[in-house]
Amino acid sequence: MSTTIQTHDLSMRYGQTEALHEINLTVPEGAIYALVGPNGAGKTTMIKLLMNILRPTVGGAEALGVDTQRLAGEVFNRIGYVSENQEMPDAMTVEALMDFMRPFYPRWDRELERQLVRQFDLPMKRKLKHLSRGMRMKAAFASSLAYRPELIVLDEPFTGLDPLVRDELIESLLERAPETTIFLSSHDLAEIESFASHVGYLEDGRMLFSEEMTVLAGRFREVTITLSAPAPLPPKLPSAWLLAETVDCVVRFVHSEYWGEASEREVADLFPGARDVEWESMPLRSIFLAIAKTGRTQNHAAQTTAGDGRPKA
Ligand code: ATP
User: Fold this and answer.
1) I need a labelling partner for 173 at 20 to 30 A (CA). Which of 15, 198, 209, 238 fits?
2) Where in the sequence of the chain do the CATH 3.40.50.300 domains occur?
């Protein structure tokens, strides 16, 4: 399968702020890739670098096989880009916007344009400045999807939209998905969970993971071990075990590298006195929470210890 977006140690600094740190990301052709992360994680910076709105401090990226620093002119006929606060020619009506944009795109599909206008129930004679937030976003989507771009890049497209509008927009994306690669950012996991094929998690400018949703769901398990008698946790636990804790006879942790029998044997070796071990699949939200909490714990440990686990003097 070929690659639509590839980054190489992509890094960006704004003065003292390191917004992105050595990001190596691969987005396969046809993927619906969701870049998720809290406010300030670096999502918009990443998208602006990919769209050649910003220049990286270090590293680089390719989109549709083109060095992003050379993205210009005709390549943008193959890319649809919609940002959260999309600037639009406000004095134009929706109809005038479509008439204005059509000649720029050789691949513009009039029939698809009509279909999108119907699907979104767009008021063609109304000026863009008089549209609600949801309608504005629908107009931006319609004008970006109608030329059948090979890559659609969306920066927080659903923020502030009601669930109905959001579902309509998602549906329009899914209809394009077989022929188009979609790259979108969001700070809301629930928003992307139902339709993204790949997910990347960015925090403080660092990519904590980037993988297929199904692989991610497959490798995480919530583990509950019931012991015959209370016992402390072994001093050295595998690094893939997150948030381990023990209360009386019960040990709980999140396994982030579950490999079936091999993982089950590992638990049996460390807890030979276990009466029962439960391995539960985790919803995506719990997986992200576990990762986020682990990150915070590690950051906290790094800040409060001398780097070798000893408290800072
Ligand atoms: P949000 O979800 O709030 O939009 P984000 O994940 O898109 O956040 P960015 O907007 O990329 O994050 O910001 C990443 C970091 O870079 C933040 O610490 C932000 O304050 C900083 N930053 C972004 N733009 C600039 C700028 N022009 N000058 C200085 N710092 C900036």
Assistant:
1) 209
2) 3-215
